[in-house]
Specification:
The complex is a heterotrimer of chains A (about 280), B (about 425) and C (about 325).
Chain A: H1 2-30, H2 37-45, H3 59-69, H4 80-91, E1 101-105, E2 119-120, H5 126-132, E3 158-160, E4 165-167, E5 187-191, E6 195-199, H6 207-213, H7 223-227, E7 233-236, E8 239-242, H8 252-256, E9 264-268, H9 270-276
Chain B: E1 7-10, E2 20-21, E3 28-29, E4 34-37, E5 46-47, E6 52-61, E7 67-75, H1 97-106, H2 119-122, E8 133-138, H3 147-154, H4 156-167, E9 175-181, H5 185-195, E10 201-205, H6 214-222, E11 237-241, H7 242-254, E12 260-266, E13 274-279, H8 284-290, E14 300-303, E15 310-311, E16 325-329, H9 347-351, H10 358-366, H11 370-375, H12 386-390, H13 397-416
Chain C: E1 7-8, H1 20-42, H2 44-68, H3 78-88, H4 96-109, H5 124-135, H6 137-141, E2 143-144, E3 153-154, H7 157-164, H8 166-172, H9 175-180, H10 192-204, H11 211-230, H12 238-243, H13 247-254, H14 265-285, H15 292-324
Antiparallel strand pairs in C: 2-3
Helix pairs in contact in C: 1-2, 1-3, 1-10, 2-3, 2-4, 3-4, 3-5, 4-5, 5-15, 7-8, 10-13, 11-13, 11-14, 14-15
């Protein structure tokens, strides 16, 4: 009785499964595409995060184009110089070294420093906030502090700290995915260096207005410009800028900066420091 | 209302490029004198709304939510008109078309319903578009607002004259209509007196929201459908606001530039609700003082109507040409609200005047699928706010749609750059 | 001038007073007449069943929210409605442990596995009912007799129709009694009158529209009427189908469930039609005497398809317009 019910069911399902299995086997053999093993090899060396920093949508595509064109100018900013050497070894040619870059935040407007305007109670997203008004901080050039960029970072290098985005220099790979996401443009890319100074302010307001809105704002007071011996600081549109190539990181500017929280920031690249020591 | 201690006149009170400032600090200006000159085709002139001294020109909060270059004028109290302005009414029938258009342009007249599109541009459509209908929008754009209603009741002759002036710019006989919501019989009566002898139809429309939106109004009056990506003149129509018609009349017949407008001051938290004729540049705090102050329960001040207005972030923002109302409300839903899951009740689909699926647009916007959302008719959304209003889950549907629009346009800009 | 805190949010600044809670609690309120009726018909046991179902549904909702680390939604009313519907869908003598299993299936397997409120494809209460029906067919089809004191059970009119034919079924039931609800059946489905009163409230509050109920009832009526006219001896009259089984309960309270029905009007018409036809087909020729639950669940599965058809169709209209102008 039991076998009466089971045998036809099991055998018919088994037959269907067998037939389908044979078809799959045949199709996979018949339509097999030969893949260049070098592409596979290159692909295995690449970081595999598909961040798009190289200009290709995926690591695999980067590998395919690289193997096909053998263009040694192609770089993967995420992998850095180490990866370039490895890729060169694999392909038997000298690869250009990518500039190691990192994103920096041109704002220090944490909640205790930057004055707030109105309270924002809409969708908690920077772009959504800018559609409602100029931003929850009085300074309209500031980091809005709702962290839209965090979702775009594939490497977990960004976090919010007291209303300001903070970038972990160790985790940032310089893929630049976050740059276009910021509505106020406080994120920029900079070369990774052992130590460097930059003006961590984005306010193009006049000095008085900047000072009113934020304790860490650059008021374009000219003091740093005068003290800089390398002529590395210029003032453009009410905002100082340190020309990275000229800056020798002497630190004199930071001593004269009159703002309550220095608008000039010193940052040491931790990797480089580690290597040096 | 009395002359405020200071007027802050933004140079961007219209759609398009901000005006170029033509005065400098410490210049003496007269009432009605040009302070900002239209910069480019889609732009508009800006004028001083009293006589006085220019104190500064710098960025200042704008009721649109952003900062804009603003001319600050300290009044001298004399309120003197500049030469040749504010003349006795003249007959417009002798003027040429070019003359009328130039006068409208010089006076800086813009659409006063909300968008602020320069009127002279709207009145000179591409020559291949044949205009056969001009509609005046007397269907108040939003609930609470009564500014247009008061204008229709108090100066119907100016409204009708303004419409006639606009009609004279086009060849042939045009269908002229004034659409008014049926709940304003006094306005219909007042206008009928002047309009009927001039062969202008005064139509009572069903009272609903959004009746005052351009596309809905054209559909209600002519039965035509303005499709995706089309402008009213593609369908032979021009829609103008009541306030704009009066401004056109003032500009053409009385040589008065657009320097004041009717503003509805309303909401539960203001002492005296009323319609006031305010100078452009009067700050909201001056208006609050004039209307008896707002209560401590106020937690939102809104420029515009409750459905499409903007919550302002500073009381220093001035009245601009497009400020149709100021609302003082105690929004109890604030802070408590959180967006919850869509329960697919379908109300947003039901109410959407454009036949979109707002719930889906918002979902796709949240996922940032910008290609897909454009296929769903993102550009068709007029942001009327009906969907957010009815959503039982409290989803910010319009805000998400606006968010997607912002991302799409910023991506386009980056591509073209 | 008093200094005020200005708050910025996005327009519109006025919102409807409706919320998920108000929708759900109104549905629960609309089910109250049927619940009271079931207590009157089947005694205190019915009340206990209702309480067990509601409490276990709310409990499982809380459990799933906690496991999934979601904000607590156990009191938003949706679990209450699911529990209530489940209770009204089972016989009043069902053992409590079966009710708890049913609640678990409804909340965990039919709702939270798909993503919680708003994301479920199938109506949770119906999934639970069908699960119980398939797993415990005997317990789920021995219906208590109304006003019985000794837990007397009997087949439902539809069951008699299936096994003994039209004549026996018609003899077992006076249609007027069927309308008032004094017949054998699951707790909530017997009283057409009480259910219609509840549905009237939902229509009044505009939580449901007439599209789905009208097409669903209409198609069942027409379909059964045609076959009754062809052969009155083999097919029961349409009014018999109207008042028996879970048709009214299913039509007004489960087919119209917002989450699992189509969004557009024409989609709803198709959905109602499909539910009605499937119900009639299962009742006339299916293996089970009752087909409402299966019909609604099958059509639930088609809802995404109907919705995407509607959307693409609209898009095509938009595009055609812009091409022709």
């Amino acid at each position: 009785m039991i076998s009466d019910a089971f045998i036809p069911a099991v055998s018919s399902l088994g037959a269907v499964a067998l037939a389908l299995g044979l078809i799959i086997h045949y199709v996979s053999k018949r339509f097999h595409v030969e893949e260049d093993p070098t592409v596979k090899l290159v692909n295995s060396i690449l970081p595999g995060v598909n961040c798009g920093a190289c200009g290709f949508p995926s690591c695999n595509q980067f590998a395919e184009v690289l193997v096909e064109t053998r263009n040694n100018a192609m770089t993967c900013p995420v992998g850095g110089p180490d990866l370039a050497v490895k890729l060169g070894e694999t392909l038997g040619m000298a690869m250009a070294e990518p500039k190691a870059q990192t994103a920096v935040v041109l704002c220090q407007g944490k909640n205790d420093v930057a004055r707030r305007s109105a309270q924002y109670l809409g969708i908690q997203d920077c772009w959504a906030a800018t559609q409602a008004f100029a931003g929850p901080k009085q300074c309209r050039y500031s980091c809005i502090g709702l962290g839209s960029c965090i979702a775009w970072c594939d490497f977990g290098a960004m976090r919010l700290e007291n209303g300001l985005i903070v970038i972990d220099k160790n985790l940032c790979t310089g893929c630049a995915a976050c740059i276009p996401v910021c509505p106020t443009g406080v994120l920029v890319m900079q070369d990774k260096k052992a130590a460097r100074y930059f003006i961590a302010c984005n306010s193009h307001d006049r000095g008085a207005a900047t000072k009113k809105a934020c304790d860490a704002g650059c008021t374009a007071c000219q003091k740093c410009v005068k003290v800089c011996e390398d002529n590395a600081i210029v003032i453009e549109d009410f905002l100082a800028r340190i020309i990275q190539e000229k800056c020798t990181a002497c630190g004199k500017c930071i001593e004269v900066c009159p703002t309550k929280v220095n608008c000039i920031r010193l940052e040491r690249d931790l990797n480089a420091v580690k290597q040096a020591s | 209302m009395p002359l405020p201690a200071e007027l802050s006149i933004p140079l961007s009170q219209h759609l398009g490029k901000p005006a170029k400032p033509v005065v400098r600090m410490n210049d003496e200006v007269k009432k009605g004198q040009l302070v900002g000159e239209a910069d480019g085709f889609i732009s508009a002139n800006v004028h001083a709304s009293t006589s006085g001294k220019v104190r500064a020109i710098r960025p200042h909060p704008h009721p649109g939510g952003q900062y804009a270059m603003t001319v600050f004028i300290t009044p001298d109290g004399k309120d003197e008109w500049a030469e040749g302005l504010n003349s006795a009414p003249v007959d417009w029938k002798g003027m040429s078309k070019e003359e009328i258009l130039k006068k409208i342009r010089d006076a800086g007249v813009v659409g006063m319903g909300g968008a602020g599109f320069p009127t002279n541009v709207k009145l000179s459509p591409p020559p291949d578009k044949k205009i056969d209908t001009i509609i005046l929008n007397g269907a108040e754009c939003e609930p609470f607002l009564t500014a247009d209603h008061r204008l229709m009741v108090e100066s119907p002759e100016a409204v009708v004259a303004g419409l006639e002036i606009m009609a004279s710019l086009f060849p042939g006989t045009l269908k002229l209509a004034i659409g008014i919501e049926a709940n304003k019989p006094d306005a219909i009566d007042a206008l009928q007196q002047y309009a009927v002898p001039k062969k202008i139809e005064v139509l009572a429309l069903k009272t609903k929201y959004p009746q005052g939106a351009e596309k809905q109004l054209i559909n209600a009056i002519t039965g035509r459908n303005v499709g995706e990506g089309e402008l009213p003149f593609d369908r032979g129509c021009i829609v103008q606001n009541i306030g704009t018609a009066v401004a056109v009349y003032d500009a053409v017949c009385r040589n008065r530039p657009l320097i004041e407008r009717v503003v509805t001051v309303s909401g539960m938290e203001i002492a005296r609700q009323k319609n006031i004729s305010a100078r452009i540049g009067t700050s909201f705090s001056d208006i609050i003082a004039f209307c008896g102050g707002m209560s401590e329960k106020t937690n939102q001040v809104i420029s515009g109507g409750p459905m499409m207005g903007k919550a302002i972030f500073s009381l220093d923002v001035p009245v601009v040409k497009t400020t149709s109302g100021i609302l003082f409300i105690n929004n109890s839903a604030l802070g408590k609200s959180r967006e919850r899951a869509c329960i697919r009740c379908g109300r947003c689909v039901e109410v959407c005047p454009q036949g979109l699926a707002p719930w889906l647009l918002a979902n796709v916007a949240q996922l940032r699928q910008l290609e897909k959302i454009q296929l769903l008719g993102l550009a068709n959304c007029t942001e009327c706010g009906s969907c957010t209003y009815v959503c039982p889950s409290g989803r910010e549907l319009v805000h998400w749609i606006k968010y997607a629009k912002a991302l799409v346009s910023s991506r386009k800009q980056r591509k073209s750059a | 001038m008093p200094s005020v805190n200005l708050n910025v949010s996005y327009a519109p600044f006025v919102r409807t007073k409706d919320s998920i809670e108000s929708v759900m609690y109104n549905v629960a309120l609309a089910l109250a007449p049927a619940t009271i009726m079931s207590v009157w018909l089947f005694g205190m046991r019915a009340l206990l069943v209702t309480l067990v179902c509601i409490l276990s549904c709310i409990g499982f909702e809380w459990l799933m929210d906690t496991i999934r680390k979601k904000p607590a939604s156990c009191l938003d009313g949706s679990a209450l409605v699911t529990g209530l519907l489940l209770a009204l869908n089972v016989p009043s003598n069902l053992p409590f442990w079966m009710l708890i299993i049913g609640s678990f299936i409804a909340i965990a397997a039919a709702k939270h596995v798909f993503g919680g409120l708003g994301y479920n494809i199938f109506n949770p209460a119906l999934v639970a009912r069908v699960f119980l029906l398939i797993s415990f067919p005997a317990a789920m089809t021995s219906w208590p007799v109304p006003f019985a004191v000794d837990m007397e059970t009997a087949a439902s009119p539809l069951g008699i129709l299936k096994t003994d034919g039209v004549a026996a079924a018609m003899k077992s039931l006076d249609l007027v009694n069927g309308f008032y609800g004094t017949m054998n059946g699951s707790m909530g489905e017997t009283s057409t009158l009480a259910l219609l009163a509840g549905a009237g409230w939902l229509f009044y509050k505009r939580y449901i529209t007439f599209h789905i109920p009208l097409t669903m009832l209409g198609s069942v009526f027409l379909f059964t009427a045609i076959f009754h006219l062809i052969d009155p001896a083999a097919y029961a009259p349409p009014l018999f189908h109207m008042v028996t089984g879970g048709l009214i309960l299913g039509t007004f309270f489960m087919a119209t469930d917002m989450v699992t029905s189509p969004l557009s009007v024409r989609g709803q018409l198709i959905f109602g039609l499909g539910c009605g036809l499937l119900t009639a087909i299962i009742r006339l020729w299916g293996g089970y005497p009752e087909g409402v639950s299966f019909a609604i669940l099958i059509m639930n599965g088609f809802v995404p398809l109907i919705d995407s058809w509607d959307l693409n169709d609209r898009k095509a209209i938009h595009q055609k317009k812009s091409v022709t102008t």
